[in-house]
């Protein structure tokens, strides 16, 4: 079918998958009786709630920083390298309602929210960040009390550093930085890689972590316990995952999925490494949030404050912290990972850079040409006559772009065909609910392509075309009863805006003067998706086109295709 399918690509939004939340909730207010330790939940996928500003306060003097703080807070959570972050716009559209939060938890497998509240206390501003459960229960909490004048006069870099300190101080309280996603004999898969500071040959203790005590007022995690279940050595590292070999076990079958490791070089810990070495364990009453003054002012003063309430959830006081939670001095600077992979000029790395997504397909596309010339694709004995690959990259949460190559080869009724299609495009996503049942976003974009196909033994000799198309699509998730598992689906349409090229008619090429075309694709991927592993799916393509050629000639093309899809992060 590859004939006029100028842009064979797969239009699917990257979902966030692989992560689950297992923690039981404790109601601990006023109860000092001993409690049984509970397993620390696996926190893998997180969503960033938009910054909440105290509604009764006038923030005119801080109007210039309100938007930047929102993006800087999200950036601080991303930069901690502790979670895979669910799309910010998607979280923004869903987090406020119980149904929306349930959807994030079940369909996107979100296991935590990161939240920042900004409130006023006279001439001071209180920044309170929390790690929340999918049901908005407080898990961790940290606060800073800052002079309002400092926030008004601070540069973007200063406020960004302040937010990173606050966020990472909270996240550092978690005893594990990555978890074991699978155990296969003597080998482990770990949910962290070079981006988290892991390097090949490194050895780690594998730990089982528990929540041992809760804050008596808000039920947040107060202290943790860890038990060594074994040791492992890293033998292969990718950007966000690693493979390790077990070198010892505390007892038979001790290491299980959900256990984890602590990574000293992860950005949220390496930032405070020197400060933590200089500190000793302090009592809960000596810790909490600090009043931070501009550089060169007095040292920070401990101060515990009541926090502002996030939407739909009441939260009480700050949670005491361990030594690793203390903020560094004002001059502390984030350190680059010691073992970051070196820059490379390798050609493969340039066309398939890390952080992008590769989507491929292999399938059978049957087509037919009629009009002033004719040709028909025949069923190949190998049942496949087309293949392609695309690289998708993101400009932002709402804009992505892609480039790729399609190839086609197979028999026709009297001969054979061979061709290629180079294409690239960009799309703009709108994350809207209730567009259609099960739909999560719509997108629009432009797709440009250059295609050349040669057909032998037929009255149609093939074509060379350049085309620009408008694309529109709808994307969402479904869980059909007859399949029983989640399907990520996409339906998209293509409409031509510009045609140029030549079409072969009985041994001569005729210029394409005009054309009309309508094409669509429906398809999806099955099951959950894990980082840096392949996910598979299927799609159906259809296209119908009519081209007006010179000298009154014409060509009508129709095609259908059944495709096997595969994709993975690079």
Short description:
This protein is mainly β. It is built from eight helices and 26 strands.
Task: Give the radius of gyration.
Answer: 28 Å
Give average pLDDT, whole number.
77
What's the structural domain tally? 2
Helix-residue proportion: 10-25%
Distance from N terminus to C terminus (CA atoms, Å) equals 29 Å
* Poorly predicted sequence stretches spanning 5 or more consecutive residues: 1-35, 280-345
Describe the sheet with the most strands.
10 strands, antiparallel, barrel
DSSP strand count: 26
Output the number of helix runs. Answer: 8
Strand order of the largest sheet: 16-18-19-20-21-22-23-24-25-26
User: What structural category characterises the helix and strand content?
Assistant: mainly beta
Strand residue percentage: 35-45%
Instruction: Based on Cα principal axes, name the global outline.
Output: elongated
Features:
12% helix, 45% strand, 2 domains, 10-stranded antiparallel beta barrel, 26 strands, 570 residues, elongated, 8-stranded mixed sheet, Lipocalin, mainly beta, disordered N terminus
Topology:
Blueprint: E1 38-39, E2 45-48, E3 52-53, H1 63-79, E4 84-85, H2 88-94, H3 98-106, E5 112-121, E6 124-132, E7 138-147, H4 148-153, H5 156-171, E8 178-184, E9 187-190, E10 203-214, E11 221-237, E12 242-249, E13 260-261, H6 267-270, H7 273-278, E14 289-292, E15 301-303, H8 347-351, E16 357-371, E17 375-376, E18 386-394, E19 399-411, E20 416-430, E21 439-456, E22 462-478, E23 487-505, E24 508-526, E25 535-549, E26 554-569
């Amino acid at each position: 079918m590859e004939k006029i399918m100028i842009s064979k690509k797969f239009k699917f939004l990257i979902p966030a998958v692989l992560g689950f939340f297992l923690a039981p909730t404790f109601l601990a207010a006023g109860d000092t009786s001993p409690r049984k330790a509970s397993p620390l939940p696996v926190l893998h996928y997180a969503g960033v709630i938009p910054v909440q500003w105290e509604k009764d306060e006038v923030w005119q003097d801080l109007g210039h920083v309100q938007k930047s703080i929102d993006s800087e807070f999200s950036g601080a959570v991303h930069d901690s390298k502790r979670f895979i972050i669910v799309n910010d716009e998607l979280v923004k559209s869903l987090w406020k309602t119980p149904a929306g939060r349930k959807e994030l938890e079940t369909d996107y497998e979100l296991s935590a929210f990161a939240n920042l509240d900004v409130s006023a206390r006279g001439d001071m501003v209180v920044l309170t960040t929390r790690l929340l459960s999918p049901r908005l229960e407080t898990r961790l909490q940290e606060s800073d009390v800052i002079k309002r004048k400092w926030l008004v006069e601070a540069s973007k870099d200063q406020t960004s550093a302040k937010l990173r300190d606050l966020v990472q101080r909270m996240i550092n309280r978690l005893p594990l930085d990555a978890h074991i996603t699978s155990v296969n004999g003597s080998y482990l898969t770990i949910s962290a890689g070079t981006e988290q500071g892991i390097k090949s040959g490194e050895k780690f203790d594998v730990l089982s972590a528990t929540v041992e005590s809760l804050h008596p007022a808000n039920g947040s995690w107060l202290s943790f316990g860890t038990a060594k279940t074994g040791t492992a050595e890293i033998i292969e590292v990718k950007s966000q995952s690693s493979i390790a070999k077990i070198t010892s076990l505390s007892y038979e079958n001790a290491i299980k999925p959900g256990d984890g490791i602590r990574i000293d070089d992860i950005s949220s810990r390496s930032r405070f490494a020197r400060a933590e070495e200089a500190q000793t364990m302090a009592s809960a009453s000596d810790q909490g949030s600090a009043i931070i003054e501009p550089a060169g002012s007095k040292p920070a003063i401990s101060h515990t404050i009541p926090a502002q309430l996030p939407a739909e959830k009441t939260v009480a006081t700050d949670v005491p912290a361990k030594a690793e939670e203390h903020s560094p001095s004002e001059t502390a600077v984030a350190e680059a990972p010691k073992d970051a992979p070196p820059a490379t000029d390798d050609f493969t790395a340039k066309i398939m850079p890390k952080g992008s997504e590769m989507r491929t397909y292999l399938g059978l596309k049957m087509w037919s040409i009629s009009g002033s010339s004719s040709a028909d694709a025949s069923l190949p004995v190998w049942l496949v006559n087309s293949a392609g690959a695309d690289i998708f990259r993101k400009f932002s949460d709402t804009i992505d772009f892609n480039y790729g190559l399609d190839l086609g080869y197979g028999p026709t009724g009297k001969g054979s065909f061979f061709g290629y299609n180079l294409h690239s495009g960009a799309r703009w996503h709108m994350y809207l609910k209730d567009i259609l049942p099960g739909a999560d976003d719509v997108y629009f974009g432009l797709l440009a392509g250059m295609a050349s196909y040669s057909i032998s033994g037929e009255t149609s000799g093939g074509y060379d075309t350049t085309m620009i198309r408008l694309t529109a699509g709808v994307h969402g998730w479904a869980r059909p009863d007859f399949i029983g598992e989640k399907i990520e689906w996409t339906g998209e349409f293509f409409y031509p805006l510009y045609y140029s090229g030549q079409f072969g008619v009985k041994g001569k090429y005729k210029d394409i003067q005009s054309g009309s075309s309508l094409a669509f694709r429906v398809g999806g991927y099955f099951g959950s998706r894990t980082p840096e592993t392949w996910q598979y799916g299927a799609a159906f393509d259809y296209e119908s086109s009519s081209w007006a050629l010179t000298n009154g000639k014409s060509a009508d093309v129709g095609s259908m295709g059944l495709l096997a899809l595969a994709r993975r992060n690079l």
